[in-house]
Every structure is written in C-alpha cells, then in structure tokens.
C-alpha cells in the first residue's frame, strides 16, 4: 500500500508541474523506527515497486541492494523530531524554487483560505550541499517550527500526517508563490487578510482543525 501511494504521488507531482527529473524524493513512515524512501537517482514520474528502500531512521540501517536517496538525512531528522509526521516530500517546483533563490520577496500566507491554513508556518534553512549531514541537521532543527521548510537555493521540503496533506501543502505553496510573482509582474497590489481575521479563521472556522506543531 505504501509503495502505491508513493508511486501515485510521484506521478502526480510531475504531471502537475510540481516536480521534474530526479530533483525530488518521497518517504512514508511505516512504524516508529522505519521509513520507506525513494532510492537514489529515481525519477518521480515513473517510480516502480523496486525503487524504494526500507530505512531505519535511528540506526541508519537499510534493507535491499538499492541505495537510498542522498537526502535521507533530512527525512530521518524530521521523523526523529516529529512523531506526528507520517509523510515527507522534497521537490523543486518552479515558483517555489524561485522564492528559495531570492531574498527580495517573501511568502504571504494571508491571501486566501488555503494559504491561511497550509502556509501558517513556513521556515527557512541556509544553503548546504544536498545530502550533507549539515543540511539534514538544519532541516531537523527547523522541523520543530513548521511543516514547510524552504531550503535556500535548493527547493522545499514539506511534511504532514498523510501524503495527501503534504501534497496539498506543496500545491498551496506553489500557487501562492506564483500568485505573488504574477501580481508583482502585472503591478497588482495583493490585499492581505488582517491578522485578527486569520487568527479567527484558524481557531474558529469549520475548515479543518488547526494542526499544532509537536516536538515529541
């Protein structure tokens, strides 16, 4: 079942313009210690059942011959710090990655319903080489503060209690980044929803229960 979810997710991300080539990786937590993660060099558009690795997030041991994604330290760090997280995706969508490569524009969460909810907490880490333990440590630390981590000059890593919710976070992020860029190009001034209204929406609306970050 987990492999089918990852296969379908990879295809959906590529078909939707949210991933390309071998630039992304996916994982699902299978129990408290283990995750199922995409193998190194796999293309999200055509994942197959032998493209995954079972990996122990605490010991670093894996099963099977395939090499795990080089970004495994990021996935392991998040799962160790966030027991509520069940699914992680890393990708480099165009508009989101544009934001990660610029300090001149910022992500606005006070735009519409989905951004208020899914982009409530977005955090950042500096550039570290892909697959490095420095990047893994930085992501793990910031995972305590948000479910979306923008990686400078790299892309984004998104996580949630299900893969469908993680994908929705990514879709909302890419949509918001595109809106902000297109509005800037067209000279359109976007109107932010007032902070009091945002807080009331998150606490009292019937949209979805507000998710509280957990550190244990």
From TrEMBL:
GO terms for cellular component: cytosol. InterPro entries: Aldolase_class_II_sugar_metab (IPR050197), Aldolase_II/adducin_N (IPR001303), Aldolase_II/adducin_N_sf (IPR036409). GO terms for molecular function: aldehyde-lyase activity; metal ion binding. Residues 4-181 form the Class II aldolase/adducin N-terminal domain. GO terms for biological process: pentose catabolic process. The keyword Membrane does not apply. The keyword Methyltransferase does not apply. It comes from the Bacteria. SUPFAM superfamilies: AraD/HMP-PK domain-like. It holds the Pfam family Aldolase_II. Keywords: Lyase, Metal-binding. This is Class II aldolase/adducin family protein. It comes from Salibacterium salarium.
